[in-house]
Design brief:
Number of domains: 1
Strand content: 15-25%
Low-confidence stretches: none
CATH topology: Oxidized Rhodanese, domain 1
Length: about 130
Amino acid sequence: MKIKGLLIMLIISLTLFSLTACGDNETPTPQYEQITAEQAKELMDTKTDYIILDARTQEEFDEGHIDGAILIPEYEVSTRAEKELLDKDGLILVYCRSGRRSKIAAQALVDLGYTNVKEFGGIIDWQYEIVK
């Protein structure tokens, strides 16, 4: 009888453990928000406190960039962001040339704890003015 009781308790324990370990209680992974260039432009026109982050290279930036953008190449975001982007809850709008590097940069920012990151693709889709 003791063995039967122990087996029942073991089955109950394993069932409870598997229910809590299945991921139902896991916190979702933070993510950046994907927006369009038009939505980014609207935010730039209506908000006053935001950062535009250009994730391209210095050479690409020098060829033309969105007015007010700061340059942190995608491959340097994880080492420079916390020194240069002090407000982890502030709005950060991220772009690159085509959208690939801006996605990498936006995810790196989220991984560092930034909470209001919006990625809007590439400057090739930007229909508005740029600074040369």
